Amino acid sequence: MDMEEKPKYGEPKKFDPDFKGPIQNRGCTDIVCCIFFIVAIVGYVAVGILAWTHGDPRKVIYPTDSMGQYCGQGTLEKKPLLFYFNMMKCASPMVLLEFQCPTPQVCVEKCPNRTMTLVTAIGDKQDWEYYRSFCREDPGVKKSVPQILQEKLCPAYLISSKPFLQRCFPSLGKKGEVITVGDQETFNDGEKIRDAKDLVAGMKNATVVMEGRQVAMKIFEDYTKSWYWILICLLIAVVLSLIFIVLLRYLAGIMVWVMIVMVIAVVAYGIVHCSVKYVSLKDTPGANITLQQLGFQPDFSVYLHIRQTWLAFIIILAILEFIIIILLIFLRNRIRIAVELMKEASRAVGYVMSSLFYPIFTFFLLTIVIAYWGVTAVFLSTSSEPVYKVFNETVCPHARETCIPENFTLSKMKTDCPQSECLFAFYGGETPYHKYLIFLQFYNVFLFFWCANFVTALGQMTLAGAFASYYWAPNKTKDMPAFPLCASLGRSLRYHTGSLAFGSLILAIVQIIRVLLEYIDHKLKGAQNKFAKFLLCCMKCCFWCLEKFIKFLNRNAYIMVAIYGKNFCRSACDAFFLLMRNVIRVVVLDKVTDFILFLGKLLIVGLVGIFAFFFFSGHTDAFKGTAPSLHYYWVPILTVLVGSYFIAHGFFSVYAMCVDTLFLCFCEDLERNDGSASRPYYMTTELRDILMKDADAAQTPTSRDMAM
């Protein structure tokens, strides 16, 4: 086999006297994919500009009157509340289909605090002055009551109401078992005397329409009250992660064992705390009902008053503790070797100290990508136009047809159905832009995955290039570049943007397929076809495994690109076969190191999560009066837990990338060189002792049994 020929599976590479590590002459790779990526980014910017031009986020924030105007905005700035002329019309089943009550709606400054009819109010000057503030337009003094009602200029009656979700709902109460409104059991709707209970159906339908928005608004309100405390908790996670990373640099051996012990201790504390809560609720009324009986509750704090919830926590934490302890017992010898590998990684990090802060740059880029995607998605979803439809209380051939409010009174629809109204129904549109809106949303999601994967890939290749510079430097002090991280970042962007785009594109395609499968699964939840469900489940499982494999392959391909400067496909192929030729080392050493780093992430999340729980839940007297009053205190806690994990993952990924790079370089070095004077190893003596010891241990029967 000559020097240019690729080695066969299991066959080591020959010595290449011209190989000088990652600092060498190289050219641009995967140029076609680079051009394609740039064009896609330009298109993404165009989609954003288009969305920002047509979109209006007010559509999902503020209520809209019958003319499509936003309450509390523009000329209606002083009228933030929505008032329904006839709440009983909301009892129609069409409300749940079209999300609009078939009754006129106007924006008002305050909800009515009196109960009266149009007939009684129009005869009293003071009452009429108050009453007409709830009319669509001033009827003047010439029009009679029948004319006002026929043209639906004013409501037939007012009911004492209270604001709820920026809408006026009747103030219902109870006298014993009888429902009342404004302390009265009946009310006059302008035509006859009705029972207060007749309002319940309309209120229930109107409430169902807004339930999702209610929960979303409460969550949004919780974020507005607690965002700075969330940032403080995330800052604590950053500080803890930095402290652990720096301590790993100088005290790698000690810190690994400290992390392992502390993880076990934190999980054990969780088991004890949940057990105490479980026992304390033993004699509490209502605490013994099951979660199935309770059903779904938007206020998650309700579940914490149920014993079964704490029992579930105990079981989950106990299983987690058992798994961790069992793994530690069986991998104790491998962990000792992995600790030595962590020490070598710490030495490499010591030569590239700026790598410890590189995750901050990655976080910054990911924040830009996520923010751009989120803002574009909101503007795209609100870039539709108001659609008006015909609403009629009686049978009408034009019911639910689209209409134009400006000329509706002169239209044939109004002539055929004199009692009909042209009211705002929803947001949509018939223009080419609105027809292809779903494709723009799809493009937004796809480019989000592609850009996010590209940023992650850029971080991996940059760190790999910096640590490879350390490995392949014959003299670590003299031959290392002055700024290895900046040099590696420059090489990655200048020569290998196409390779980064290629790898992240493949991953983005798999991820978007997984999103589509989840969407199909959501749509088929009510389906009875068990074969279709089984097939969909198998596909979801297969694509999940495929995504994990591609992430693993991409990561190692980027390392090979950083070392040799070859294109993505060649690098991925070389990395895969190199790992296959050293599969025992990969399984029993490299993955053990990943497990140790995962325990470190769990420790950071556990420590910050415990602090966030006691702070936001108010279960500790020390934080009472300081913690904000929230609807759902689980909202900031979950945010802190997820954010802390990503922060810890970002910082610990520096060590993970260092270990993976050193490991791959070691395997490559071992195949190219034999340690002789003419072909010396580039690896340090310490790294050779660690990995050679592992190679010897891998041959023992005990180790083989453990690996199996």
From TrEMBL:
Q: Which InterPro entries match?
A: Choline_transptr-like
Family to which the UniProt record says this protein belongs: Belongs to the CTL (choline transporter-like) family.
Q: What is the lineage of its organism?
A: Eukaryota, Metazoa, Chordata, Craniata, Vertebrata
Provide the transmembrane region boundaries.
Answer: 29-52, 227-248, 254-272, 310-331, 351-375, 445-473, 595-618, 630-648
What is its membrane topology?
A: Multi-pass membrane protein
GO terms (molecular function) for this protein are: antiporter activity
Give the Pfam families listed for this entry: Choline_transpo
Q: Where in the cell is it found?
A: Cell membrane; Mitochondrion outer membrane
* Name of the protein this chain belongs to: Choline transporter-like protein
One GO cellular component this record assigns the protein to is: mitochondrial outer membrane
Q: What does this protein do?
A: Choline transporter.
Q: Which UniProt keywords apply?
A: Antiport, Cell membrane, Glycoprotein, Membrane, Mitochondrion, Mitochondrion outer membrane, Phosphoprotein, Transmembrane, Transmembrane helix, Transport
From the UniProt record, list the reaction(s) this protein catalyses.
choline(out) + n H(+)(in) = choline(in) + n H(+)(out); ethanolamine(out) + n H(+)(in) = ethanolamine(in) + n H(+)(out)
Chief site of localization: membrane
